[in-house]
Amino acid sequence: MELQWPLILFTTLVAWSAGLFGTQALMAVFGVGKRAQVPAWVCSAVLLAAGGIAVFFHLEHWERIFNGFGHLTSGITQELIAIVVL
User: Fold this and answer.
1) 3-class SS at 60?
2) Rounded distance between C-alpha atoms, residue 86 and residue 74, angstroms
3) Rounded Cα gap, residues 71 and 58, in angstroms
């Protein structure tokens, strides 16, 4: 089995971003770590962007990704719809 490093990086970075964002949100609710809120949110956004960029390296022809959005049954279109709905 071949390892798909871009997908591994995408999953790791997005999960790290979500965990950091969720942890900082809980800390904000309880009034703890006020000085760390903005840096944590910025770091979370950077991790999310890096994960989003990493996923494009998985595609053989990344410039064709928008062709998939025209087909409602394509996996990328269904993922996009799920992200927008959630």
Assistant:
1) coil
2) 18
3) 20
Digit-coded pLDDT (tens) for 6-25: 889 989 999 999 999 999 99
Distance between CA 25 and CA 41 in Å, rounded?
A: 9
Q: Tell me the pLDDT tens digit for each residue of 19-53.
A: 999 999 999 999 998 899 999 999 999 998 998 88
Residue corresponding to tokens 């949100």: 25
Q: Which residue has the tokens 């089995």?
A: 1
Q: Using alpha carbons only, give the angle 83, 9, 25 rounded to the nearest 5 degrees.
A: 55
